[in-house]
Amino acid sequence: MVKLLLQVFTLLVVVVIAIVTFSMLSSSNQAIQGLKTQAEKSNNDLEALKSQNQTLSALQVKLKEFQDKIHELQAGSEEKILAVKKDMKGESESLHARIDSEASSYSNELRGLKTRLEKSQNEIEDLKLQSKTLPEIKTVLEAFNAQIKDLEAKIITAGTSNPNAAVKANVQIAILPEEKINVKYPFKLTIDKDTTVHIDPVGTDKKTALTLVVVCNGKQVLSLNALGQNQYEYYRKDPGTYRIYLESFNSNAGFYQQCSNSVSYEISIPVSSK
User: Fold this and answer.
1) What is the pLDDT of residues 11-48, one digit of tens each?
2) Chain CA centroid to CA 188, Å
3) What's this model's pTM, rounded to 2 decimal places?
4) In the Cβ-directed half-sphere of 260, how many Cα atoms lie within 13 Å?
């Protein structure tokens, strides 16, 4: 009986040992399988790392190429910048020279303008002083005109007492036809058979300096102030062709210009009177 119990106990121990061993073997297989899985994963990770290392190496190569190109561009840019700075410096110096030249020119013009302004101011002051003496000048001119008329009267008297006066008195006067003109003058002259010249309208415009001009055979022989008068008679009886017209001073142009039509007459001495 005891022997049987020992055999049973031994059998139970063997069974337990077998079960434990099988369990351990199963666990070991699972562990081995897990290790294999981890090993495969590690291999995959290693391959991925190798691929990443290759990609990183390629990127490093490209990065170096980019860096080299950047250095080249920077070097070229520095050269271009230096060239541009040089050009800008030259243009700046040229511009400063032009500015200095123009400033000098403007300064000279300004000095000239100041000189002209001072001269104009002096002329204005002179004109102001002269304007104060205009009444006196007018009085002198009136007296001078009176003397001229007296001299003309004396000339006429001397001419009639001259031995040749009879010859000059026996003359023929022919009023010539009025010339055809397209210009409309502000004054109109007419002449009668006694060679008296009439002005229409009467030359009383105080703002206009009127002058009666007498031309004989193409040469001006007389110039009279025509202000305030409406008729004139030219007493010279020498043979020739006479032309008479009015002139006025054009302040804008700075000279006298014709302001009326022309009237003409011709004096001749008959052959029988010689």
Assistant:
1) 888 888 888 887 787 777 787 888 888 888 888 888 88
2) 45
3) 0.39
4) 26
pLDDT confidence of 214, banded at 50, 70, 90?
very high
Judge whether 259 and 186 are in contact, CB under 8 Å. yes
Q: Residue 130 falls within a domain, yes or no?
A: no
Would residue 202 count as lying in a domain?
A: yes
Tell me, yes or no, whether 231 lies in a domain: yes
- Residue 198 vs residues 18, 215, 225: alpha-carbon distances, Å: 170, 17, 14
Task: Give DSSP secondary structure letters for 5-46.
Answer: HHHHHHHHHHHHHHHHHHHHHHHHHHHHHHHHHHHHHHHHHH
Domain total of the chain: 2
Q: Is residue 157 part of a domain?
A: no
E strands, 110-195, where? 172-175, 188-191
Per residue, the 3-state secondary structure of 167-234, as one string, reads HHHCCEEEECCCCCCCCCCCEEEEECCCCEEEEECCCCCCCCCEEEEEEECCEEEEEEECCCCCEEEC
DSSP code at position 182: -
Whether residues 95 and 2 fall in one domain: yes
Where among 93, 112, 131 does a domain terminate? 112
How are strands ordered across the β-sheet holding 188-191? 188-191, 196-200, 231-233
Of 246, 272, 271, which Cα lies nearest the Cα of 260? 246
Q: What domain range is 183 assigned to? A: 172-273
